[in-house]
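User: Hey, quick favor. My workstation is busy. Could you predict this chain's structure for me?
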Amino acid sequence: MAKELVLASASARRKALLTQIGVAHRQFPVDIDESPRPDESPHALVTRLAKEKAMAAWQRLANEPNERVVLASDTLIAFNGKPLGKPADRDDCFAMLRALSDNQHEVLTAVSVCDANTQKNLCVCTKVYFAPVTDAQIAAYWESGEPADKAGSYAIQGAGGQFVRKVSGSVSSVIGLPLYETRCLLEEFGIIS
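Assistant: No problem, here it is.
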């Protein structure tokens, strides 16, 4: 019997990226406490969250009889060494996009894959360079609704991509799942060859 891949995420972007590379899977979203710990670096935070999501899904599916592999991922933006999450409101969105305007930041995406015996984790860092962004552009972008649930208040694969001048690293990682690294992990777990 073939192993089933379970994506521990409700993200339409992650689902689409796995489908894009031909990986059959089912989604099984989990909620965990995503609060940062005191003095936790963005890298440590995003890696811990991916690991905890994978383990939470694994444990909740433990009574199912089929053999499975769980994949979880988390993405956050690091600016000046601090994580930028989803904006709390319009003012928070303005503050984030003003800070990112004409500046560079890092997008960190961690991936965790586990089965009954093993858990492997990785984190991909991509540098993103923003063009200057005006308050009028931010206001129009906010009104589109797109930035409200996006880390750092923008989506590179959506209208927010208009603010990105350059990317150094994995574009798919900025969208939510580094495809090359994820494929390598899934090969190790026998999901793809």
